[in-house]
């Protein structure tokens, strides 16, 4: 029998490893490892045996905690999207103008998309490319995430136009789509090991359009 509980600071799950001997593991730590594995190799490129080795858990523990590989993947994707949203909110909190917020946001993506970190990749982009056509639930999750990202960019552009940091003649809706394309494109380019200077240079060129 699984004994589980959620806590904002520490989420743990107990699964039996032998008669009368439950084993406790940190599900958040396990999900973080799953995020990295799925981001690097994709859903189909990751087997249960790969997850056993990566998470340090038996197949039985994985099945009891998440149902199956897909259940684990969905939990990892949800955690990844939450983590990214929180990280973006934190990096924007100290910036004052709409333009500076956009530059800070894009620069963060540039750093995430370059060198070793870039090779790990983005779980959202990996999922969109690999699974959107084959899995309607995942397709809907990715579409909703992209819509939220585009809406955030649109708000930042409009904020910049209101505070005078972005030219009013910029078409906010079209520019939001362009910025979203740059964000996602950088994550794809990063899988091949793009240099940080290249990524940051792309951001600088785009910022001149604002």
What keywords describe this structure?
single chain; 210 residues; mainly alpha; Arc Repressor Mutant, subunit A; Tetracycline Repressor, domain 2; 2 domains; 3-stranded antiparallel sheet; 69% helix; elongated
Measure the end-to-end span. 57 Å
Number of domains: 2
Order of helices and strands: EEEHHHHHHHHHH
By oligomeric state, this entry counts as: single chain
Largest sheet: 3 strands, antiparallel
Topology:
Blueprint: E1 3-5, E2 12-16, E3 22-26, H1 27-41, H2 48-55, H3 59-66, H4 69-92, H5 98-112, H6 115-120, H7 123-131, H8 136-163, H9 172-190, H10 196-207
Antiparallel strand pairs: 1-2, 2-3
Helix pairs in contact: 1-2, 1-4, 1-7, 3-4, 5-8, 5-9, 5-10, 7-8, 8-9
């Amino acid at each position: 029998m699984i004994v589980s509980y959620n806590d904002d600071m520490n989420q743990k799950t107990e699964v039996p490893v032998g008669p009368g001997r439950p084993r406790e593991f940190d599900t958040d730590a396990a999900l973080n490892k799953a995020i990295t594995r799925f981001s690097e190799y994709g859903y189909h490129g990751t087997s249960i045996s790969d997850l056993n080795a990566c998470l340090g858990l038996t197949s039985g523990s994985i099945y009891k905690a998440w149902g199956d590989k897909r259940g684990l993947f969905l939990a990892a994707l949800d955690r990844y999207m939450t983590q990214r949203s929180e990280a973006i909110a934190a990096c924007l909190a100290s910036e004052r103008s709409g333009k500076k917020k956009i530059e800070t946001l894009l620069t963060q993506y540039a750093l995430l998309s370059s060198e070793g970190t870039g090779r790990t990749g983005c779980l959202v982009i990996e999922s969109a490319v690999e699974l959107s056509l084959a899995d309607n639930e995942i397709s809907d999750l990715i579409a909703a995430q992209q819509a939220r990202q585009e809406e955030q960019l649109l708000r930042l552009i409009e904020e910049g136009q209101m505070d005078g940091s972005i030219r009013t003649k910029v078409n906010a809706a079209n520019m939001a789509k362009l910025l979203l394309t740059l964000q996602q494109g950088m994550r794809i380019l990063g899988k091949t090991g793009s240099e940080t200077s290249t990524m940051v240079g792309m951001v600088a060129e785009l910022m001149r359009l604002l």
